[in-house]
Specification:
The complex is a heterodimer. By secondary structure, chain A is an alpha+beta fold. Among the domains of chain A are: 120 residues, Dipeptide-binding Protein, Domain 1 (Dipeptide-binding Protein, domain 1, Alpha-Beta Complex); 219 residues, Dipeptide-binding Protein, domain 3 (Roll), CATH 3.10.105.10. In chain A, 29% of the residues lie in helices and 21% in strands. Chain A contains 15 helices and 21 strands. The N and C termini of chain B lie close together (11 Å). Chain B contains 13 helices and no strands. In chain B, helix 6 crosses helix 7 and helix 12 packs across helix 13. The chains are: A alpha+beta, B mainly alpha.
């Protein structure tokens, strides 16, 4: 009998041992009130600004890294790592004077070399940076990236520790907008040596020059940022700690918010809007993004502008958005609906007449003119899209609407996201879904995609007139004239040549603990920023 | 017996080799590249592919992967530069293993207990209730049960955490979700086997000797009735140990299952392969262990092995 008791005790001990062995340490979230926990999407990409970054870096950098300067919600310049800048008349030489009191989180000085460090590392293709192309306005940057020039020919000078000079290939009026991109963000020269050395996730070596620094990083689970006591604007920072927890899907995030495990959950499903209607927790923000469809111009009859126009005019976007979700709003533009025009302070797309109006009657006429009266003889076109819920719903509605209005058939080709990217890059489609979130707050981020030589131009667009309009805007320093050029370019692509089918703009559905105040929205991307947030009064 | 074990291990290694080869080529058949994402240009993708040797002919890549595998090198994850596949497995496996072990122990205890209760109870209602509950537990898909438990016990009642595996209480819901089905199966197996044993002559003899029913079950019949359960427990354990994709995803547990799903959707070739080989090894070892254990417990099987030896 004694033996059995011993066995039972051992079994219990084993059970407890097994369980505690698997327990991971919980992030400290309770205690003092000035800590918040934010739910973000799964751990993806590098934390190195010169590396292949994705969501994790974006969440981290918003709180931990200071770019040279940025724009606030009113379109005014907000100096961060820099305290002033000047530019020559030709807009080809930009000089930034760094803040002398800026320190890394270990107390060492932030110098111009730290900015150069990220740039030179990102110009090595092996770094995998998807943003390296945004360094190409700098003299010789593209040649260096392609291995055709030496690094010492790069058009970046650091005459002293606190001065950073960029020499550009040609005038670039939106250069200041590029500065928020990872490749223009500093990485401490002392530790940030290579993309794969692991420095970026190691709290000992991953230094921050912003209001928070990386205190703990547990892959796939969470990371903790603590207040940077060495930050030049430390007095304005009220939170002591921000914990970011990774979640696989947005429904789990919403559950965790409901269960009180996180204070902020972003980009939730649109159903959350109904569940939380009228409650203080719900915070709906604009996404600077457009969802649209590419036509393949190499496929008949999509090479005929009348057919492209007919399809565009035949859709009913209001109805589409009602079905797809409350977080969508119809758009008739390529440039994101909620992107602001800094020269007017209004939404850019409101600065010109809507590129086209939906008109079912005219759509049928156009199709008949193109040789397909009542859809007769029209080939079955394939629409390729990723199997995300929203895109699947969209595809069904479009198929239905085109059948009803034009009597043409669309074959739906649902693909896994990665497979859909491949299809698009290979140009192996008739119509393909596309979604573009702005990289920086200038319409150029959208319009440049349709340039003949753009890597995102997978649909065979080759329009010298369009190219010329966009290129002229590059060097037009008068903001009003530049806006006119950009509007003309968009009108040509969307309202005359109908290269794409704009569908809708999106809202981001977020849940935020009502005790938290001071959360801001970054104008360029629409993401939330917690630098100067406060919890509890 | 030893020879049997060695033979099984050799077959296991051969299976792993075939598994790794088939997976290697199948993975490459999926369209897409590990480095392609919405925001990276084609030239960047090509540059990185070259850096990782993905531009080499497939047979060359295969040979170099296999050479690494023989030395126990599973390679570097493409999505997580600087992190080896072994490191990823090392951090995900404890979570999955602890969850799987806990679920197995719970299923064995609950299943055996309920099985005995069903046979022993003199009230018919108890037997019916256990059957009905078992049917429901086996019939409701794991993910549905998991979501239901999550909604009721953490989102609404806030009794248990909704995500992560940070405290003991966060084990409760995932373990219940995982053990529902095996518990139902074990209950039924146990009840059937025990009922069969109870009709055998030795039980009759024991009763004639004047032993009580309870005593007979615990000291005599249970051991025999447990054998079929054991043969089920092996594969069930292997299944639980290699991670439940669904339950891990619902409760946001960064275990093997979640890593596996992520690795496939991001085309992280080395990670997919590494996880497949690792899971294959676990399945083979656990099944081998279960067979050997059964042999130790049942003299008839033991003799069988001996027969093969001769």
């Amino acid at each position: 009998m004694k033996k059995k008791t011993v066995a039972a005790v051992l079994a219990c001990a084993l059970f407890c041992g097994v369980i505690s062995g698997g327990c991971t340490q919980a992030p400290e979230t309770d205690g003092a009130d000035s800590r918040i926990t934010v739910a973000i999407n799964s751990d993806t990409g590098s934390m190195d600004p010169a590396g292949s970054i994705a969501l994790t870096y974006l969440a981290y950098s918003v709180s931990a890294l200071d770019e040279l300067l940025t724009y606030d919600e009113n379109g005014e310049i907000e100096y961060r790592a820099a305290e002033s800048f000047e530019v020559n008349e030709a807009y080809t030489e930009w000089t930034f004077h760094l803040r002398e009191d800026a320190l890394w989180s270990d107390g060492s000085e932030v110098t111009a070399a730290d900015f150069l460090n990220t740039i030179t590392r990102a110009l090595d293709p092996a770094s995998g940076s998807g943003y390296a192309v945004y360094l190409f306005p700098i003299e010789n940057a593209e040649e260096i990236y392609n291995g055709e020039a030496q690094m010492d020919s790069l058009g970046v000078d650091t005459p002293d520790e606190h001065t950073l000079v960029f020499h550009l290939e040609k005038p670039c009026v939106y250069f200041l907008d590029l500065l928020r991109l990872p490749v223009y963000t500093p990485s401490c020269e002392k530790y940030a040596d290579a993309v794969d050395s692991g420095w970026a996730t190691d709290p000992e070596r991953s230094l921050a020059n912003g209001p928070f620094y990386l205190a703990e990083y547990v892959p796939d689970q969470y990371f903790v940022l603590k207040k940077n006591e060495n930050y030049w604007n430390e007095d304005a920072v009220k939170l002591d700690q921000i914990t970011y927890r990774f979640f696989d899907d947005t429904q789990s995030m919403a559950n965790a918010y409901e269960a009180g495990e996180v204070d902020v959950a972003t980009s939730l499903p649109s159903t959350v809007m109904q569940l939380y209607e009228g409650k203080e927790d719900l915070m709906v923000t604009d996404q600077i993004a457009t969802r649209y469809i590419y036509f393949n111009l190499n496929v008949e009859p999509l090479d005929d502008v009348r057919v492209r126009r007919a399809i565009n005019l035949a859709l009913n976007r209001e109805e589409l958005c009602q079905i797809v979700g409350a977080d969508t709003e119809p758009t008739y533009n390529l440039v994101a609906k909620y992107m602001k025009d800094r020269s007017t302070g209004e939404y850019f797309v409101d600065g010109a007449p809507q590129p086209f109006e939906e008109n079912a009657e005219l759509a049928r006429e156009l199709l008949a003119e193109a040789g397909y009266p009542d859809g007769e003889g029209f080939p079955v076109l394939t629409y390729s899209y990723p199997t995300l819920e929203m895109d699947s719903d969209t595809a069904q509605v479009i198929k239905e609407q085109l059948k009803e209005t034009l009597n043409i058939d669309i074959e739906l080709r649902a693909q896994e996201l990665q497979a859909n990217y491949s299809t698009r890059y290979a140009g192996d489609f008739d119509m393909c879904r596309m979604n573009w979130t702005a990289d920086f707050a200038d319409p150029y981020t959208y319009l440049s995609m349709l340039l003949s030589n753009s890597t995102y131009n997978c649909s065979g667009i080759n329009d010298p007139e369009y190219d010329s309009l966009v290129e002229q805007s590059d060097s037009q320093t008068d903001p009003v004239k530049r806006s006119e050029l950009l509007h003309a370019a968009e009108q040509r692509a969307v309202g005359e040549e109908f290269y794409i089918i704009p569908l809708y703009a999106m809202k981001s559905v977020n849940l935020v603990n009502p005790d938290i105040t001071g959360i801001r929205q970054i104008p360029a991307s629409g993401a939330l920023e917690y630098r100067y947030a406060e919890k509890g009064q | 017996m030893l020879r049997y074990a060695v033979k099984r291990i050799m077959t296991g290694i051969l299976s792993l080799f075939v598994l790794a080869t088939v997976t290697f080529f199948l993975v490459r058949l999926i369209p897409g590249s590990p480095f392609m994402s919405g925001g990276v240009s084609q030239s960047v993708v090509e540059a990185i592919e070259e850096e990782y040797g993905l531009n080499e002919p497939l047979p060359v890549q295969y040979l170099s992967y296999m050479a690494g595998l023989l030395q126990g090198d599973l390679g570097i994850s493409y999505q997580d530069p600087g992190t080896s596949v072994t490191e990823i497995i090392a951090r995900a496996w404890p979570l999955t293993a602890s969850l799987g072990t806990a679920a197995l122990i719970v299923s064995l205890l609950a299943g055996t207990g309920l099985g005995i209760l069903k046979v022993m109870s003199r009230k018919k209602a108890v037997g019916h209730m256990i059957s009905a509950a078992g049917m429901a537990a086996a019939g409701i898909p794991g993910f549905a049960a998991a979501i239901l438990l999550l909604l009721v016990f953490s989102v609404k009642l806030k009794l248990f955490p909704a995500s992560g595996l940070y405290t003991l209480s966060s084990y409760v819901l995932p373990v219940i979700s995982l053990s529902l089905y095996p518990t139902a199966v074990i209950t039924r197996m146990m009840a059937n086997a025990l009922a069969a044993e109870m009709g055998k002559e030795y039980v009759l003899f024991a009763r004639a000797k004047g032993l009580g029913r309870g005593r007979i079950v615990l000291t005599h019949a249970l051991k025999n009735a447990f054998l079929p359960v054991l043969s089920y427990a092996g594969p069930a354990f292997a299944y639980l140990l290699t991670g439940s994709f669904v339950v891990e995803s619902i409760f946001t547990i960064p275990g093997l299952g979640r890593e596996f799903v992520d690795s496939i959707s991001s085309r992280d070739y080395t990670l997919i392969l590494g996880l497949t080989v690792f899971m294959g090894t676990v399945v083979i070892l656990v099944n081998l262990a279960a067979d050997l254990l059964a042999a130790c417990l049942d003299p008839r099987i033991r003799r069988n092995f001996a027969g093969r030896e001769g």
